[in-house]
Write a structure and sequence with these properties.
β10, α8 and β11 (221-226) form a beta-alpha-beta unit. By secondary structure, this protein is of the alpha/beta class. The protein is built from eleven helices and 14 strands. The strands form three sheets. The chain has a seven-stranded parallel β-sheet, sandwiched between helices. A four-stranded mixed β-sheet has the order 8-9-10-11. Strands 7-12-13 form a three-stranded antiparallel β-sheet, with helices on both faces.
Length: 317
């Protein structure tokens, strides 16, 4: 049986994770790695020439960022290839879906997959459907927020930084106790910033700019810790993350709690594994003659598995 031919667009942490994921699989193979920059990689191809690969790739895994890469690349590449991406700007997902769907007239384009959006999204919908009377809660962390870390590095005088999102144990326990609390943003999470400054930088000014930064830190209790580059490299090189989705609900006189959690040593490596599973689903949908954009809500879970439907019914049901 021929293998599913995969191309990777972008070779940062996510792209490298996708390569590792493919190395573990028997039904898929990596055939090209596309990048705007020159790579020292045996499968490197310049992104500018990607259209020439239209008939040589079954699914493209888009590993660029949601801020600038995917809004441009998603629709453009979905017009030529089956694609899967991890677009995660939640407020813009409906707009992004429409743009990609309009382009994917002869292809399948799976958008916004990973763990949140992605697996957490599935858990929220599943638990809310089963327990319509109740409250849903999502907690993130403890883990490195790459977007918030980037926001720190944009501050004048900051050389490097990592930001950790930390869920409140008190808030989590209240949810698990079935209290169905109404929680503010500040009550659910705290933020911890490890910052390396340029020589001579005003640390007090930097700290005030961080804790008062709108959309990122102003609504949270935020701790700022100044450390050396050596400490950052030694103690904060990894990119762990995770979190919890909980649904506390009632049926008649009885209370129930649904909880789904993740603890990830590497956020990008886990996310890339989710992308690869959905690449398999995209290929199978296209083989059935389907086209257009899809989200995790539109794809049967069995299509993610390398096993056949008969094997799943026999071994997993």
């Amino acid at each position: 049986m021929s293998k599913i031919r995969i191309g990777i667009v972008g070779y940062g942490n996510l792209g490298k994770g996708a390569e590792k994921a493919l190395a573990q699989l028997d039904d898929m193979e990596l055939v090209a790695v596309f990048s705007r920059r020159q790579l020292d990689h045996s499968l490197y191809q310049p992104l500018a020439g990607i259209a020439e690969w239209k008939d040589k790739i079954d699914v493209l895994v888009l590993c660029g960022g949601s801020a600038t890469d995917l809004p441009e690349q998603g629709p453009k590449l979905a017009a030529l290839f089956n694609t899967v991406d991890s677009f995660d700007t939640h407020a813009r997902i409906p707009e992004y879906y429409e743009q990609v769907n309009a382009a994917a007239t002869g292809t399948i384009a799976v958008i916004s997959t990973g763990w949140d959006p992605g697996l957490f999204s599935l858990t929220r919908v599943l638990s809310e459907s089963i327990l319509p009377q109740g409250e849903s809660y999502t907690f993130w962390g403890r883990g490195v927020s790459q977007g918030h870390s980037d926001a720190l590095r944009r501050i004048a005088g900051v050389k490097d930084a990592r930001q950790y999102t930390i869920p409140s144990e008190t808030a989590l326990q209240r949810v698990r106790n079935g209290e169905n609390p109404q929680l503010t943003t500040r009550e659910k999470h705290t933020r911890e910033c490890f910052v390396v400054t340029e020589d001579g930088a005003d640390k007090q000014k930097i700290e005030q700019e961080i804790v008062n930064m709108p959309h990122y830190f102003a609504d949270y209790d935020t701790k700022v810790l100044f450390i050396s580059q050596e400490e950052l490299n030694r103690d904060h090189a990894a990119l762990p993350h995770g979190g919890f989705v909980l649904r506390s609900g009632q049926t008649g006189d009885n209370n129930h709690l649904v909880e789904f959690s993740l603890q990830l040593d590497s956020n990008p490596e886990f996310t890339s594994n989710v992308l690869i599973a959905y690449a398999r689903a995209a290929y199978r949908l296209h083989q059935k003659g389907e086209n257009g954009a899809r989200t995790v809500f539109d794809i049967p879970i069995g299509l993610l598995s390398p096993r056949t439907a008969e094997e799943l019914r026999r071994d997993a049901l």
